[in-house]
Amino acid sequence: MPLKLRPATEADAPALTDILHRAKASWGYPEEKMAEFRDYWRISEATIQSLTLTVAERDGQPIAFSGLSPQSEDTLLVDFLFVAPEAQRQGIGDLLLKRAEDHAHRQGLSRLYLESDANAGPFYEKRGFRTMATRPSEMSPGKEIPLMEKPLAPAVYRVDALNIEVSDEPWAFETKHADAIDAYFEEARKRIPMLWNGRTMKLTGFEFKDGTFNGTCAECSFAAFLAWRDWGAPDASSFNLFGSAILRSAEGALLYGVMSRKTATAGMIYPPGGNLDPTDLTEDGKVDVVGAIYRELEEETGLKRDDVKPAGLLVTFDGWRISIGQLMDVPRPAEELRTEILRFSEASEEQELADMRIIRTRADLEDSAIVPYARSLGKYLLP
């Protein structure tokens, strides 16, 4: 069965406490020290209510968890990160740590902080943490507990060039979990009958350096993507790369779409755009992200390439989501654009948009329905 990530519930408290105790003991601490630890440290229902706890499970059984809480206006505290001994050295701790970074970005925070086990410092150092100070370890007299931080990179960057290829290999996640994916999609279609299992592409590796985004995509089914997304993106080597049409009106306002009930992201607010599919290729076989953006722009809003003026490419990193956005200046007032786009959407068969949200100031980004990458884009572009 595939690994899945999900929020903890109060019913998880005993299982998470067991993981906490067994993971701590795996460092080989003396039994008298472990007895003290077990008496003092446990995951209670109150713990689950007060922290953002994420559970990693396999076959319905928790095997690891993380616990997060805001420490200051710019810092996220990693309170807990524990993996059951039988599940260690499988990349699960690394995955939970990456999702902690994702959570920090979504909260607008720029730093992770944690107090490591005296033995775990090298694990965190390999993942970009640095030791700020130390304090004596109660579990290991003579050893020091490192107090560690990791500054997080900005989310949005200008892009000068794109170079994205398509692999001949199938997406490993889909191949490995084909039966579970099929079953999940059948259940999803019962909830959203309009779901269509077309073909799409997922990013399986990338490098962004000196303004150039290089990457490789693998073709897959929408069903595989949906399962991967809803299971917490458990394959940390893959990303959802998609195109965004960032519309900017004559007065400098941004226009984001409010997705309709006919879509898999109903109620969410973000720029027009969508997933890449196998038809989005140039003559030399490269992924044509910009072409896909203009295709989605016309399909969702009715606006054509000649109606807008390109104003640069932006990449926005949001954990396992990566948006390549084409900033588009439209020499028309925002209200006029909104009216025209909604008229087009209402007349279309798909009716993907329920509304268009006009974003004039950063205060307009506070709506919780605005997805994190769209909020980051707005903060980057608006004064």
- Please provide the count of β strands: 18
What's the CATH architecture name of the largest domain?
Answer: Alpha-Beta Complex
Proportion of β residues?
Answer: 25-35%
**Quick one: CATH superfamily of the largest domain?**
Nucleoside Triphosphate Pyrophosphohydrolase
Largest sheet: number of strands, sense, barrel closure: 8 strands, mixed
CATH C-level name of the largest domain: Alpha Beta
Instruction: State the end-to-end distance.
Output: 47 Å
H/E element sequence: EHHHEEEHEHEEEEHHEEHEEEEHEEHEH
> If helices are DSSP runs of H or I spanning 4 or more residues, what is the number of helices?
11
Average pLDDT metric? 94
Low-confidence stretches: none
The total number of structural domains is 2
Account of the protein in words:
Keywords: Acyltransferase, Transferase. Residues 3-153 form the N-acetyltransferase domain. This is Putative acetyltransferase. It holds the Pfam family Acetyltransf_1. The protein has 383 residues and is α+β, with helices and mostly antiparallel strands. The protein has two domains: 4-151, Aminopeptidase (3-Layer(aba) Sandwich); 156-381, Nucleoside Triphosphate Pyrophosphohydrolase (Alpha-Beta Complex). The protein is built from eleven helices and 18 strands. It has helices at residues 13-25, 31-40, 45-50, 92-106, 121-125, 172-176, 178-191, 222-230, 289-301, 334-347, 372-381; strands at 4-7, 52-58, 61-70, 75-83, 111-115, 130-136, 144-151, 156-159, 161-166, 199-209, 212-221, 240-248, 254-259, 269-270, 273-275, 309-318, 321-329, 353-359. Strands 8, 12, 13, 14, 15, 16, 17 and 18 form an eight-stranded mixed sheet that branches. Strands 1-2-3-4-5-7-6 form a seven-stranded mixed sheet. A three-stranded mixed sheet has the order 9-11-10. Helix 7 packs across helix 8 (222-230). The longest helix has 15 residues, at 92-106. The radius of gyration is 23 Å and the shape is globular.
